[in-house]
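dumping this here so i dont lose it
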C-alpha cells in the first residue's frame, strides 16, 4: 500500500531560541527517525535551512514573501499540519486533510483593536478549513471555544512535548557570580512580569536573579530601569543564552520563578521541574493546569507578597527530597513520545489508515 504523505510546517526552526523554534527542532528530530508503515513525512522548512534528514523525509522550502500570496512550488500532500497558528500568514499547498494547532490567543491582549480583528479573521478562516483543531492546553482550548465559531468541530487537547534536557551539555555562564540565585527565562515582554521579580529581589540581598531571554523588545528597557534602581544590585537581565548555559542555570538555580500572565503552555516551568527544582508561578492562564500541585502559586503578584511566599515555601521544598522527585515525575508526563504518539493517532484517523 502506498504511504500517505503528512506535511509538517517547520518554518519556525529558523528561530531556535523561541518556543516555536524548539518545537520545530524536536519535530524534525522525532519524525525524521520514524519509519511508519502507512505514513511518509514531508517537512516544510525556511530557505537557508537545508539539512539532510535522511531518506524517510521529503523536503520543501518556503519562500517567505512569495508564499505569502501564492502556493506555486508548495507540495501537494494527503495531510497538512500547521504546527502553530503563526503559520497561517502564508499559503498552504494542496492537501486532502488539514490539522491546525493553536498555541495561544495572545493577540487578544497584545495587539490593538484593528490587528486583533485581522488575526481573528485569519484564524477563523483557518478553523473553517480545518479537519481537526488541536490546542496545547485545556485553557487555550476553552479560549478557542469561547472566541470562535467552531461549526461543531471538537477541540482536541494535545499537550506539548518537552525535550528532556537533564543529560545535555552544560556550561557556567560568564555572568554567574557564584552566589545562590533564582532563574527566569522568556521573551522580555510585559506579559512575563519579570519587572516584578526585580522588585522582589530587595527581599533577597544574599541571592541573585538571572532573567534570560530575547531582550530586543521595548519593554526590556523598563526591566533594565528597574534593575538600575534596585539598591541591592542583585538582578541581571542577561539576554539570549546558549542551550548549555540554560541547562546549567536550571541545574544550579535555587528556584525557578515564572510570574507570567500570558502563557499557552509554560514550557520553562516543566523544564525546571525536570531538574527537581522548586517552581513559583502566577495563577493566570494555563500555568496551574500544566504545573499541577508541583508548583507554588502566587495568588497575588505584589512583589512584597511574592517574596513572602518564596520565603515561606522554599526552605521546606529544599529540605524535602520527595518534593523534588515528585516534580521530576510530573515533568515526565509531557514526554515527546506521548506527544508524537497522539498526533500519529490523529493523522491516521483523519487519513483512514490502520492504527
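and the seq i came up w/
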Amino acid at each position: 500500500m502506498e504511504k500517505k504523505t503528512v506535511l509538517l510546517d517547520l518554518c519556525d526552526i529558523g528561530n531556535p531560541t523561541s518556543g516555536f523554534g524548539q518545537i520545530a527542532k524536536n519535530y524534525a528530530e522525532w519524525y525524521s527517525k520514524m519509519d511508519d508503515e502507512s505514513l511518509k513525512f514531508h517537512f516544510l522548512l525556511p530557505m537557508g535551512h537545508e539539512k539532510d534528514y535522511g531518506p524517510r523525509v521529503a523536503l520543501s522550502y518556503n519562500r517567505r514573501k512569495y508564499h505569502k500570496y501564492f502556493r506555486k512550488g508548495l507540495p501537494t500532500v494527503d495531510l497538512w499540519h500547521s504546527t502553530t497558528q503563526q503559520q497561517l500568514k502564508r499559503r498552504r499547498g494542496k492537501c486532502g486533510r488539514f490539522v491546525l494547532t493553536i498555541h495561544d490567543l495572545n493577540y487578544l491582549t497584545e495587539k490593538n483593536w484593528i490587528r486583533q480583528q485581522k488575526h481573528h479573521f485569519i484564524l477563523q478562516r483557518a478553523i473553517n478549513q480545518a479537519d481537526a483543531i488541536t490546542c496545547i492546553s485545556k485553557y487555550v482550548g476553552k479560549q478557542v471555544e469561547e472566541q470562535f465559531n467552531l461549526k461543531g468541530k471538537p477541540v482536541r487537547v494535545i499537550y506539548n512535548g518537552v525535550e528532556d534536557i537533564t543529560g545535555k551539555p552544560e556550561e557556567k555562564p560568564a555572568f554567574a557570580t557564584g552566589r545562590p540565585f533564582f532563574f527566569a527565562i522568556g521573551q522580555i515582554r510585559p506579559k512575563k512580569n519579570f519587572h516584578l521579580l526585580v522588585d522582589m529581589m530587595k527581599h533577597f540581598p544574599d541571592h541573585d536573579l538571572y532573567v534570560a531571554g530575547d531582550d530586543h523588545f521595548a519593554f526590556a528597557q523598563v526591566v533594565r530601569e528597574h534593575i538600575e534602581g534596585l539598591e541591592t544590585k542583585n538582578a541581571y537581565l542577561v539576554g539570549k543564552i546558549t542551550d548549555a548555559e540554560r541547562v546549567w542555570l536550571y541545574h544550579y538555580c535555587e528556584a525557578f520563578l515564572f510570574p507570567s500572565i500570558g502563557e499557552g503552555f509554560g514550557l520553562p516551568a516543566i523544564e525546571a521541574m525536570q531538574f527537581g527544582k522548586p517552581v513559583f508561578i502566577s495563577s493566570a492562564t494555563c500555568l496551574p493546569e500544566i504545573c499541577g500541585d508541583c508548583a507554588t502559586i502566587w495568588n497575588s503578584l505584589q512583589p512584597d507578597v511574592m517574596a513572602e511566599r518564596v520565603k515561606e515555601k522554599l526552605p521546606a521544598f529544599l529540605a524535602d527530597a520527595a518534593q523534588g522527585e515528585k516534580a521530576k515525575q510530573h515533568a515526565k508526563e509531557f514526554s515527546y513520545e506521548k506527544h508524537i504518539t497522539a498526533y500519529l493517532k490523529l493523522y491516521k484517523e483523519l487519513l483512514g489508515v490502520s492504527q
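The mean pLDDT is 95.
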